[in-house]
Amino acid sequence: MSLAALGMDGVPALDPLSYPGRVVDGPALLSGTQLLRMTPTAEPIGRWRVHQDTNPACSLDDVLADLDSPPTSERHPLIAVGSNAAPAQLHHKLTRLGLPAVVPMTPLRVSGLGVGVSAHVALNGYVANSPFADPDSTADVVLTFLDADQLCAVDDTELPRYHRVLLSGAEFDMTLPSGERVDTAYLYVNAAGVLAARDGTPRVPGAQEALLAELLERSPRLRALFDSPQDWIAKARADADLRATVKQIFHESGWVLRQEAWREVSPLATSGDHP
Question: What's the CA dihedral at 245, 250, 256, 260 to 10 degrees?
């Protein structure tokens, strides 16, 4: 079914207050502007069944081959905690560079990982979701499978504000809907830390407009810069110095929770390990 028919065609990069966008809630294959439902099996993900009108029982790797796209064994698992979990955002990031928007996507449960709100303002003006290590947390995220060119393209939208790190299943238990464990997966993390809620715990992500309204309510200094969430987006996306000022206010207000150092990988590094 098309992203438009599913109500999933909104792009947070173009409509920042919609961040993180409509994310997948079940295994699916993004194929251009279509989202094809997948059914997990007890076998590796390349053998999961893709539901198509023409062939309702084809394996994922067979469908990828029909699309002249690399199989899952040649793709790189990348965890998405924000807008990269939204098919329309991925479609936008890839097609604007002339790359095919063919990406397997599936929910993933990760132990030892929490998802909070980044202590900086993204280029598009929104305050994005950001992961942090927490042995007592379990995060429900989305795992995408990108080929080498797609991975480089997404890197270009994240680095250097984020670092791409490689999580090990030995440290962070990662489970697919099929029950299969993932050995390794990439994750974008940032050095800015995450924002604290009023009680000092990591602020839980939510609707962007409500988040910005809350931050404005908490800080007279921010209200002196922005009249509303809409004003925040309009000004922040156009002014790098203003984004830096907001980040400084976050720190000076005592809202930032630092996170442990992650082992960074090279922007062009890829892993030979696949689930």
Answer: -10
- Distance between start and end Cα atoms, the chain: 27
φ, ψ for residue 261 (rounded to 5)? -70, 140
Minimal CA–CA distance to 184: which of 89, 76, 38, 83?
76
Give CA angle at 73 (69, 78), nearest 5°: 85
Are residues 270 and 134 in contact, defined by beta-carbon separation less than 8 angstroms? no
> What single letter denotes the amino acid at residue 6?
L
Tens of pLDDT, residues 73-98: 999 999 999 999 999 999 999 999 99
Q: How far apart are CA 143 and CA 106, in angstroms?
A: 5
Element (H, E) at 231: helix 229-236
Asked if 101 and 155 count as a contact pair (C-beta separation under 8 A), the reply is no
Q: What is the pLDDT of residues 174-214, one digit of tens each?
A: 999 999 999 999 999 987 899 999 999 999 999 999 999 99
Q: What whole-number distance in Å separates Cα of residue 15 and Cα of residue 156?
A: 20
| Spatial separation of the C-alpha atoms in residues 16 and 34, rounded to whole Å | 23
| The model's pTM | 0.92
Cα of 212 vs its chain's centroid, Å: 19
Backbone angles phi, psi at 224, to 5 degrees: -70, -20
Q: How far is CA 127 from CA 59, 75, 118, 206, in A?
A: 38, 29, 6, 11
